[in-house]
Amino acid sequence: MIHQEGQSMTGLEKMVSQILEEADASAAVTISDAEKKAAEILREAGEKADKIRQQREEQSRAKVKSYEERTASAADMKKRTAVLAAKQELIGNVIADACDRVKNLDEEKYFGILKNMAEKYLLPREGEICFSKKDLERMPAGFREEIKSLAQKKGGVLEISGETRNIDGGFILIYGGIEENCSIDAMFAEKRDELLDQVRKILFA
User: Fold this and answer.
1) 171 with 131: CB under 8 angstroms?
2) Chain segment 70-83, per-residue pLDDT in tens
3) Cα-only R_g, the chain
4) Are 102 and 184 in contact (CB under 8 A)?
5) How buried is 61 (Cβ within 10 angstroms: 0-12 exposed, 13-18 middle, 19+ buried)?
6) Residue 5 C-beta-side C-alpha neighbours within 13 Å
7) I want to staple 135 with a disulfide (CB 3.0 to 4.6 A). Which of 49, 82, 131, 157 is the partner?
8) Is the CATH number 3.40.50.1980 carried by domain 106-204?
């Protein structure tokens, strides 16, 4: 009986051993599959993480690039605005300087310019011309007659008024109670756009 029990135990042990072996094999397969799946999951997770990191890096680079471009664009715009403002200021200064130079020419050249201006703006009518106190006091001999002669050539009559006007150079023409401002400042203002183009071409051509 003992021998039989030993055989029975041996058979049982074999059966158990076989079951364990099968279970172990099955477990090994299961574990192997699980490890493969885990490895696959980890690989996929790693790839996703890499993609996310790459996307973030690309987005970050894109944001940095976009910021740099915006900053560069803003800086360029400020630069162009500053350059344009400087050019406009320079042009304005040149025109203002030219106006002042005309006002401060020596008397011969200055009154020669006034005579040319009068010849252009005189009308074939009876009128009056007014000057500043400064110009009336320093008016060259013969200038009054020259102005009257120019008016006659135009078919008009012009009297030089003893009444002065608060202008810095040039004159005021009066026809039928209507005044026309022919001061130096008014002439430069009238020709400003034309002068701007001329000065711009000279300075920045």
Assistant:
1) yes
2) 777 777 787 788 87
3) 51
4) yes
5) exposed
6) 2
7) 131
8) no
Strand extents, DSSP E, the chain: 126-130, 157-160, 170-175, 178-183
Residue of 196, 204, 203, 197 whose CA lies nearest to 92: 196
Read off the pLDDT of residues 75-122 as tens digits, 9 standing for 90 and up: 778 778 887 788 888 888 888 888 889 889 999 999 999 999 999 999
- End-to-end Cα, the chain, rounded Å: 126
Phi then psi for residue 142, to 5 deg, are 90, -10
Both tokens of 159, joined, read 């009297």
- Give the start-to-end residue ranges of the domains of the chain: 11-104, 106-204
Closest to 180 (Cα-Cα) out of 105, 129, 125: 129
Is the distance from CB of 161 to CB of 171 less than 8 angstroms? no
Tokens (6 digits) for 166: 């608060």
Which positions ≥6 away from 184 have C-beta within 8 Å?
99, 102, 103, 167, 168, 169, 170
What is the token pair recorded at 37?
Answer: 């799946």
What pLDDT does residue 28 have?
A: 54
Q: What is the mean pLDDT of residues 178-203?
A: 88
How many Å apart are CA 194 and CA 198, to the nearest integer?
6
User: How far is Cα 153 from Cα 166, in angstroms, rounded to an integer?
Assistant: 29
Distances (CA, A) of 162 to 148, 167, 180: 15, 15, 17
CB 170, CB 183: distance < 8 Å: yes
